[in-house]
Design a protein that fits this description.
single chain; about 425 residues; mainly alpha; Ammonium transporter fold; two-stranded antiparallel ribbon; 15 helices; globular
Length: about 425
């Protein structure tokens, strides 16, 4: 066993020791004014969001070459294990702990989930247990690094990938989650609107994907022969299904806002799926299962930041606009030397940016009375400018930060597999398994 391969085992032993040394609670939950309906819905929503990561595994796994299906799917599944452990130790604290300058949480606030099982409810989710809020937010932290995997599919070393996603969570995801969703967060206090993760999840993953595609360079043999389109269809169904928990769950209760977010999620995705294949038809292409699935996911991405702020007609507009723009960028990317294997940046990164900007256009007090400002469509400009400024700032932070982390990871453990391992396929070369 090499020194590098011993590190994960040593870290796991350290986690076990910490778990024994720092019990998280007294064991008796205190009585708070919780709402049973809200709690039941959020338990359901947390489970729905988790199913999105296996859904993403099928979505990506079906698109790659047959010799890389298992490795690509495992890259999503391992996030459920790795990020969950980190979340319990200090991750939840980084994202939602006591604010340090509005950019990161104090890692000691909920260290080893101290005072979470019996803690007071989160300020913005006062009717559900704090532990439930923590587990719901965990699912967002899980899927974000998993989204990046489509950009470097078929050519990254598995051990290096695990190092990178750990660094990405600590230095990119957690600061963005804190700044955007914590009441003392920098972006939150500026008035940035991100209902369910267009900025925190999709933009961060999209820009990290672009940095990854550039850093890892092209595959030695670029191929576009999906292993199993039926896997893509299954993955899309699971993603669409789980996304109702993703968006509607972000209302933090069983209420009208959750119903609004569920409805806008459905309509934006449907509109985007149709727009993608209709736009393909205009370009002379046949309607395809892949196009329908990609369009649906782009619509889901774009409506995520806006789901609880816009009307149903405006959600249709968001879906169509996002699908057309992403479709154009996918075509453009295919004519360049950039090897973003599964077009993560054009779909997730750009979809998230379109959704963020259009939130600044269509956000309405009639939909969400809690808003203090409305969008550009209603004659108010400040919200749009805030969204635009945040989009630019987050883009620079996520891309530059991911670039640095990739370089650091490469120093710790080489990112690329060898030419021989790539030719053999990552299923065999990295995991000694095959379909």
């Amino acid at each position: 066993m090499t020194k590098l391969s011993k590190i994960p085992f040593i870290l796991l032993v350290a986690v076990v020791v910490l778990a024994l040394a720092f019990p998280s609670a007294s064991g008796v939950a205190k009585a708070y004014d919780l709402n049973q309906a809200d709690t039941a819905w959020m338990l359901t929503a947390a489970a729905l969001v988790l199913i999105m990561t296996p859904g993403l595994a099928f979505f990506y796994g079906g698109m790659v070459n047959r010799k890389n299906v298992i490795s690509t799917m495992l890259q999503s599944f391992i996030c459920m294990a790795l990020v969950a452990v980190v979340w319990v130790v200090f991750g939840f604290s980084l994202a939602f702990g006591d604010s340090i300058g509005g950019v990161i949480g104090d890692p000691s606030t909920f260290f080893m989930m101290r005072n979470v099982l019996d803690g007071a409810p989160w300020a913005l989710a006062p009717t559900i247990p704090l532990a439930l809020f923590a587990m719901f937010q965990l699912k967002f932290a899980i899927i974000t690094p998993a989204l990046i995997t489509g950009a470097f599919a078929e050519r990254i070393r598995f051990t290096s990938y695990t190092v990178f996603i750990l660094l990405f969570f600590v230095f990119i995801y957690a600061p963005l989650a804190h700044a955007t969703w914590h009441p003392e967060g920098l972006l939150f206090k500026l008035g940035v609107l991100d209902f369910a993760g267009g900025t925190v999840v999709h933009m961060s993953a999209g820009w990290a994907a672009l940095a990854s595609a550039i850093c890892l360079k092209r595959r030695h043999k670029v191929s576009h022969s999906p292993a199993m389109v039926t896997f893509v269809l299954l993955g899309t169904g699971l993603l669409w299904f789980g996304w109702f928990g993703f968006n509607a769950g972000s209302a933090m209760g069983a209420n009208t806002l959750a119903a609004t977010a569920l409805a806008t999620t459905m309509t934006a995705s449907a509109a985007a799926a149709l727009a993608w294949i209709f736009f393909d038809a205009v370009k002379g292409k046949k309607p395809s299962a892949l196009g329908t699935c990609i369009g649906a996911v782009v619509g889901l991405v774009a409506i995520t930041p806006a789901a609880g702020f816009v009307s149903l007609p405006h959600s249709l507009v968001i879906g169509v606009v996002a699908a057309v723009i992403s479709n154009l960028l996918v075509d453009y990317r295919s004519r360049t030397s950039l090897d973003d294997t599964l077009d993560v940046f054009p779909c997730h990164g750009v979809g998230g940016m379109v959704g963020m900007l259009l939130t600044g256009v269509f956000a309405s007090k009639n939909v969400n009375p809690a808003l203090t400002e409305q969008g550009l469509f209603f004659g108010e400009t400040r919200l749009f400018l805030v969204q635009l400024g945040a989009m630019i700032g987050v883009s620079i932070f996520a891309f530059a930060g991911s670039w640095v982390l990739l370089k650091v990871t490469n120093l710790i453990s080489p990112l690329r597999v060898s030419m021989e391992e790539e030719a053999l396929g990552l299923d065999l070369s990295q995991h000694d398994e095959k379909v």
